[in-house]
């Protein structure tokens, strides 16, 4: 959309050594960490077991969509901010233009404001793995001709994929091209492998 603008706010530097040293391994927000996984894991479990628990498709669909909606709101507004210091949202100005805002907390000297490594792992693993599971469900429903479940799994892919995309933009910088960044990363890994294998020779 040509009316969409992207705004950067305090972009996070993932390679900051000071931030890594200041992080602690303990979980500082256990309630947030629990609910970060609870809704999304519950939605997956209900999807897998609903046909065994009840014959009502409507009840299963409503339950899964409610869990996915709760997960989307919780991750977008609470757990991202508390666990990794990231937040994204959309706002519309007085002219009706849409602005996507990607915010990341700057590294602070106060350790109480920094997220722990354990929370960061929980956050990113949950954020990445669950959308992949919903994509697998989508292909499974499509190839097994379970058309009635497609709407449910597509909802799972869209809601959890949106959060994943938003937080990746917060993490790497909203104005960076994700494709070029991935290409640069793979290029660096290739050069590193060449050097370690001894094929890289200096004159």
UniProtKB/TrEMBL annotation:
It comes from the Eukaryota. It is a multi-pass membrane protein. Coiled coil: none annotated. Pfam families: DUF846. Keywords: Membrane, Transmembrane, Transmembrane helix. It is found in: Membrane. The chain crosses the membrane at residues 55-75, 122-143, 149-168. Its main location: membrane. GO terms for cellular component: Golgi membrane. One of its GO terms (biological process) is vesicle-mediated transport. Belongs to the TVP23 family. PANTHER family: GOLGI APPARATUS MEMBRANE PROTEIN TVP23, GOLGI APPARATUS MEMBRANE PROTEIN TVP23 HOMOLOG B. This is Golgi apparatus membrane protein TVP23 homolog. It comes from Tricholaema leucomelas.
């Amino acid at each position: 959309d040509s009316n969409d603008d992207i705004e950067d706010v305090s972009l996070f530097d993932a390679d900051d050594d000071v931030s890594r040293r200041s992080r602690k391994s303990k979980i500082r927000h256990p309630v947030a960490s629990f609910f970060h996984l609870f809704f999304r894991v519950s939605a997956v479990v209900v999807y897998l077991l609903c046909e065994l628990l009840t014959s009502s498709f409507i009840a299963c669909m409503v339950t899964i969509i409610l869990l996915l909606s709760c997960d989307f709101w919780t991750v977008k507004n609470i757990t991202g901010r508390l666990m990794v210091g990231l937040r994204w949202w959309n706002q519309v100005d007085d002219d009706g233009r849409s602005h996507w805002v990607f915010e990341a907390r700057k590294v602070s000297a106060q350790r109480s404001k920094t997220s722990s490594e354990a929370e960061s792992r929980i956050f990113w693993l949950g954020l990445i793995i669950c959308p992949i599971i919903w994509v697998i469900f989508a292909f499974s429903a499509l190839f097994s001709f379970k058309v009635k479940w497609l709407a449910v799994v597509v909802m799972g892919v869209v809601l959890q994929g949106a959060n994943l995309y938003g937080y990746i933009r917060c993490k790497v910088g909203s104005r960076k091209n994700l494709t070029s960044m991935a290409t640069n990363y793979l290029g660096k890994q290739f050069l590193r492998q060449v050097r370690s294998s001894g094929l890289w020779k200096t004159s």
